[in-house]
Amino acid sequence: MMIDLDQRVLRFSTVALALVFLVAASAGHSAINVGDWTTLYQGVEVARGDSDASEPRLQRVFAVRVDLQAPGIELFSTPDNGAAPKETTSETTSEFLTHYKLQVAINGNFYAPCCAPGDKDLIGLAVSRGTVVSPPVVKGTGSAALVITRDNHATITKTGAGFSTANIWTAIAGSEIVLARGTVPALAGTELNKAAHPRTAVGLTQDARYLILMAIDGRQLGYSIGATIDEVAAWLLRFGASDGLNLDGGGSTALVRADGDKAVVLNQPSGVALGSSDNAGKSVNECQQRSTGNNLGVFARLVTADK
After folding, report:
1. Model confidence band, residue 304 (pLDDT cutoffs 50, 70, 90)
2. For residue 296, with 0-12 CB atoms within 10 Å meaning exposed, 13-18 middle and 19 or more buried, which class applies?
3. Cα–Cα distance between 256 and 102 in angstroms, integer?
4. Residue 133 pLDDT > 70
5. Cβ-proximal residues to 173 (8 Å cutoff; 6+ apart), any chain
6. CB-based contact 245:156 (threshold 8 Å)
């Protein structure tokens, strides 16, 4: 558990950050803007953030907040592919959402090979409805994971030596933890981390009640350039996360929601579905989505007038 001093520091940081936003908004020319949360489904909300030209780079950010205590919420990731080669068979995030009739979905683990559709091996832990699809790794990319139990208790943790997969219902792995108890840990000084790229990340609020799914667009001049790994952590904080995990990004970054039986792409993916032999009839956004080895989805109930 977090000690009292940590709690006071985190509360102070949260209040200070809110005051910065308030002052900037009142000035009418804020460099960074974080929009209000808008309800999509029971326990699921969406918000958008952006930074203008007075910041180091243009950024467009989309986030979904999931109340893990809301009725009907279940997290689900790509299942194994049975007797087929490797661990999973890839799908775009939109295909994954419509295939399993989910309400929201985002891309997950790093995987290989990239980037044509087909069978993939995942990098790091992946668990789908209690079945281990990809085993945990001890170090390097994939050695940090979002872990969720059947009753929706979520944790972002390292999967080092002695890590147990018992009682895990859903899990996805990323490159590294970018937020821990409201602070940014020492991050790897790689060129991949230092450069601006499209990014996908997940976060948890301090009480672990809310799961944040976040996509930062990039590689698109005049729209959104992307983010460094430190900027990923900063955006997670702005959307209310206390702990955060960086996932596969680049051309894989995609965040989608359901509209009836169709998928609506919330962000503007930069990837291309390389190797796809049939893009006929697909929307522009669908053609730009990469077929990824793992996706994370949310089952949620529709909003009704019933109390």
Report:
1. confident
2. buried
3. 10
4. yes
5. 108, 109, 110, 122, 123, 124, 125, 126, 134, 136, 137, 142, 143, 144, 145, 146, 159
6. yes
Tell me the per-residue pLDDT of 241-258, one tens digit each, with 9 for 90 and over. 999 999 999 999 999 999
Question: In DSSP terms, which residues pair with 259 in a beta bridge?
Answer: 262
**How far is Cα 26 from Cα 21, in angstroms, rounded to an integer?**
9
Handedness of CA 16, 20, 22, 26 (dihedral sign): positive
Based on the number of CB atoms within 10 Å of its own CB, is 119 exposed (0-12), middle (13-18) or buried (19 or more)?
middle
Beta strands in 191-285 (DSSP E): 199-204, 210-216, 243-246, 255-259, 262-265
Of 62, 22, 8, 16, nearest to 206 by C-alpha is 8
d(CA 27, CA 272): 40
Please tell me the pTM assigned to this model: 0.86
Q: Are the C-beta atoms of residues 91 and 57 closer than 8 Å to each other? A: no
The 3 state secondary structure assigned to 203-227 is: EECCCCCEEEEEEECCCECCCECCE
* 142 and 248 Cβ atoms separated by less than 8 Å: no
The Cβ of residue 150 has, within 10 Å, a number of other Cβ atoms equal to: 13
The three-state secondary structure class of 145 is: strand
If you search the block for the tokens 């522009």, which residue do you land on? 284
